[in-house]
Amino acid sequence: MSGHVVPKKLYILVFAALIVFTGLTTGVAFVNLGKWNTVAALAIAVCKASLVALFFMHLRWSSGLMRMVLVAAFVWFAILVTLTLSDEFTRQWTPVPSSWEARIQQQVR
Amino acid sequence: MHSSAALAEQFDDLQQQHEASSLGMWLFLATEVMFFGGLFTAYIIFRNFYLPAFEAGSRLLDVRIGAFNTAVLLCSSLTMALAVRAAQLGKKGLLITFLLLTLLLGLTFVGVKLAFEWRHDYLEGLVPGVNWTFSGPDSQHLELFFCFYFFMTGVHALHMVIGVGILTVLIVMAARGRFSPQRYNAVEMSGLYWHFVDIVWIFLFPLLYLIGGRY
After folding, report:
1. Which residues span the domain enclosing B74?
2. Is there a domain that residue B14 lies in?
3. Which terminus of chain A is more solvent-facing, meaning fewer CB atoms within 10 Å of its CB: N or C?
4. Which of A3, A26, A29 shows the shortest C-beta gap to B88?
5. pTM
6. What distance in Å separates the CA atoms of residue B69 and residue B178, rounded to the nearest whole number?
C-alpha cells in the first residue's frame, strides 16, 4: 500500500465539524454584525476548506511538495486579488488633472 | 507479479508512482485555483463597485436551498473519502457502494440546482440575457450580480457533471476488478478533484448567498 489509510472515525468527525460550520455560517448571516459578517463568513469558509484539504485530501499526510503546490496556488491568487484591489482602492487618491477632463469627456461620448 | 502490474515501468516503486500522480493532480488543481480565482476576484471588485445591488441580489437567492446543497456536497465528500479508503483496503463491494453514493449525491446537487434554483430564477425573470424582467431599482447592476451568479455556479455545476462522468468510469472499472490495494491511484486522484470542487462550493456559498446579510 502506498498511501496512508485514515481511520473511518476521523473522516466522520471531520464531516461532523464541516456540517456544524455550515450551520454556524448560515446562522451568523442572520445576525447583523456589520462588516464582521463578511469576515466571519470568509473565516469559516477558510476553516472548512482547510479541513477538507487536510483530511479528505490527505494533505496532512502528504509530502511537503504537495503542500507547496497548494500554498503556491494561493500565493498567486493573493497576488491577483491584492494587485487588482490596490488599483481599485487607490484610484481616488490622486485627483484627475483638470487638463484631462476634456479628453475623458470625449472618450465617454 | 501482482505489484509489478500495478507499477508502471518508469517508476522505481509504488511510493514514487503515487507521489508522481499526486503532484500532477495538485498542479492541475493549482491551475483550477487560478481559474476560479479570476472569477472570485472579478466578483469581489464588482461587489465593491455596486454593493447595494449585489447585496439585494444575494437576498434574492434561497439560502435554505444553498445550505441544503452545501450539506449534500459535504456528504458526497465524505462518501468519496470513504471510497478511497475502501480502495486502499481492497474492499471492492464497499468501494462500488461509496462511489455510487457519491455519484447520487453529486446528481442530487446538480438536480436541486436545476429544478429548484435555476428554474425558479428563470420563472421569476432573473436570468440575464435569457429572461430578464426585473424592473426595480438598480436593475442593471442587479443583472451584473446575476451574471456572476450564473457563471460561477454554472462553471461549478459543469465541474460537478465532469465529476459525475469520472465517477461513472470509476464504478465500471471497480466492477471489472481493476483496483487493488496496490493499484488505486485513479480513485484517489478523482477523489482529490471531487474534494476540490467541494472546496470551490464552500467559498461560493457564503460569497453568493450569505454576505449580503439576511437580517
Report:
1. 36-210
2. no
3. C
4. A3
5. 0.91
6. 32
